[in-house]
Amino acid sequence: MENNKPIYVTQPSLPGLSEFIPYLEQIWENKILTNNGPFHQQLEKELSAFLGVPYISLFANGTLALLTALQVLRITGEVITTPYSFVATTHSLWWNNIKPVFVDIEPEFGNLDPAKIEAAITPKTTAIMPVHVYGNPCKIERIQEIADIYGLKVIYDAAHTFGVNYNGQSICNYGDLSVLSFHATKVFNTMEGGAIVCHDAATKKRIDYLKNFGFAGETKVMAPGINSKMNEMQAALGLLQLKHYRGNTEKRKIISDTYKKELAGIKGISMLPEPQNTETNHAYFPIFVDEKEYGMSRDQLYEKLKQNNIFGRRYFYPLISDFSMYKSLDSATPSNLPVATKMAEEVICLPMYPNLSDNDVSKIVKFLTNN
Ligand code: T4K
């Protein structure tokens, strides 16, 4: 029944199929499927202008972009990072033989807490990898100050921040590199996809070599690279998605405003504040459940919603530091991460996507109100 169809945490936005066909016809016609083809080049140009970033290099997905970003800057030893993220953030360190050092988050937005970074720096530390979680900017000024004092690189996992502007410019312009994800579940998707944003032509060149096995010409390999290139179908879809991005973001904003208004009075449910000087993308809508005040635990609410075909997600529970491959690290101990532990225990991300209907939003609000 229409009324009882499952509502998932997200649903990818897609252009009309008929819009995509001419792009496919062009690919079939010119037979360039990958390796810096025409759509790939066009999307890099258009994204650079759209986002307001000087250089962008496209990838097959965000995880490969993260892995490559660490190679680009030759990061080694230890990297300070957050446990409150998707596992790919820390896995990218592990795959580069780098030791993750978890630092707690700040309670306001759930981003890496700069006040706790310095105590975690050792002679082996080479970089900081924060995440702009849910698309809300990290305390970038303070993080940069610390990086400058200690001579560290900053690579932002900016997987959630497509289209986010801070102080009038793209959030991806901060730090040494920023890594975006264009996965199906993201505000801008190319089914799978990702990108690295950098500041200068030399770095862009190095990124482009590294994502194509290290080739710098037909017979010259300048470094042990990988194959992490975006293909022409992904790039073509990206060109189309870009045309729909603003309209989709407006729809997300309306849903976000409705949630905020309708949930404001519920005792025991809290929401994130508006970030200052920021144009947001409304990528996620996390709520936090205080069991005592709300009269029901987060997990009880999560299950209740599920029984009613509403599939929110507990992003980001468990903490990355609680997964077995990282648990034994000194920095993974819960007493080192009290704020992250609390947030991970209280969070549910509510369904949020442009085509979420008013009826569905009302239904979700109703279940949260009548517990
Ligand atoms: N860094 C951060 C901070 C990230 O959040 C991510 C990815 C990455 C790095 C890595 O970037 P990528 O390598 O992925 O580009 C999802 C996504 O798979 C993942 O991309 C994303 N973060 C993470 C936050 O969420 P799951 O395991 O929750 O996905 P899944 O398949 O359960 O999807 C959630 C819901 O979305 C489904 O219940 C239904 C709906 N859905 C999903 C897909 C894939 C659809 O309707 N259609 C679809 O095609 O991880």
Whole-angstrom Rg? 21 Å
Q: Helix fraction?
A: 25-40%
Number of helices: 11
First-last Cα distance: 24 Å
Bound molecules: ligand T4K
Largest sheet strand order: 2-10-9-6-5-3-4
Mean pLDDT level: 97
Number of strands: 15
Low-confidence stretches: none
Strand content: 5-15%
| Count of structural domains | 2
* CATH C-level of the largest domain: Alpha Beta
In CATH, the topology of the largest domain is named Aspartate Aminotransferase, domain 2
Outline the biggest β-sheet: 7 strands, mixed
Task: Outline the structure in words.
- The protein is built from 11 helices and 15 strands.
- It is an alpha/beta fold.
- It has 2 domains: 17-241, 3-Layer(aba) Sandwich (Aspartate Aminotransferase, domain 2), CATH 3.40.640.10; 245-369, Aspartate Aminotransferase, domain 1 (Alpha-Beta Complex).
- α4 links the parallel β3 (78-81) and β4 (99-102).
- α1 (17-30) packs antiparallel against α7, α3 packs across α6 and α7 (232-263) packs across α11 (358-369).
- The mean pLDDT is 97.
- Bound molecules: ligand T4K.
- Ligand T4K is lined by residues 8-12, 61-63, 85-86, 88-89, 131, 157, 159-160, 181, 183-185, 194, 311, 313, 315.
Task: Briefly characterize the structure.
This protein has 371 residues and is an alpha/beta fold. The chain folds into 2 domains: 17-241, Aspartate Aminotransferase, domain 2 (3-Layer(aba) Sandwich), CATH 3.40.640.10; 245-369, Aspartate Aminotransferase, domain 1 (Alpha-Beta Complex), CATH 3.90.1150. Helix content is 36%, strand content 15%.
